[in-house]
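Entry 14. Structure prediction run on the chain below.
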Amino acid sequence: MAKKKTSTAGTCKLCAEEKNLRWSHAIPNSFFRDIQRKNNGQSILLTTTPEPIRRTNESGGDYLLCDRCERDMNIFDAYAYNWMTDTRARLVNTKFRGRIELNHNRMARFIASTFWRCAISDNQIYDSLKVSADEIDILRRSFLDEHDPFHNMSFGLADLYDGEGFIDRAAMPNVIISPTSWLGTRKRARYIGMFFVVKGFFVSLVVPRVAYSQRNDPTFLNRKKTHIVVPRMDIRSLPMFKAVHRATMLKFIAE
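Output returned:
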C-alpha cells in the first residue's frame, strides 16, 4: 500500500477555510497504535459491514482538518486517551472500585468530536455510522467552545467485560469496534444512539438527550460531578453489540 501524504490541499471540514488538510484520524491513532505495536503493525477491526475480517494496518485516516483545527481536536483526544489508559490500568485490579476524577465536559467534547469526524469521513471503516446532515451539524456545534455539549445530547461511558469469558479482561483493551449507530423511539419520539469501543470502554452518545429521570444512570456522564465510579457493563448485554457480533461470526464462517 502506498504511503499516504501527510497533507493535501482542500477545504477544512471544521473552519471551512481552504488550507492544507492533515492526514488525521477520527478515532485517535494512539488507540490503534497501542494494539498494532503488539501485533507487528496489524490489528483486527470489527464492523457490521459486509467486508470480510482481515488483519490490517488500517486506522481510519482521512483528510479532514487543517493543522490548526487538528491541534484543537488533539486537546480532547489527548485528554481522553490519557484518562482511558490510566483508568484501564487501575481497573485491571478487579477489586478497585474507587472514585476516579473525570472532566465530564472535556470527555463529552471528545466523544462528540469523534462521532462528528467519523460521520464526515469517507473512510469505509465508519460505514456502520448512519447519521443525517442535521445530526452531523448538532455534533459539530456541540464541541465548539461556545456550546454546551450536554444541551441536547447524553454521553455514556462504561467499563466492558465479557460475561461469557470469551474475551478476557486483559484482552478487552485490544478490541476496537468501529462507530455504529442505531435508531429508537422514546415516547413516540425518534432518537439516534451511537457507540464505539476502545481501550475496553463502551463510549456512547444519544441525541436528543435522555429524559431527566434517566440522567442519574451511572453509565451517563453528569457534568455536575467531578469524580465517578466507572460502571461495569457486560458487552453481551448490549442489543447493538449483537449486530456486530452476528456480522463478525458470519465473516468468520465465510472465511
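DSSP finds five helices and twelve strands in the chain.
Filed with the rest of this week's runs.
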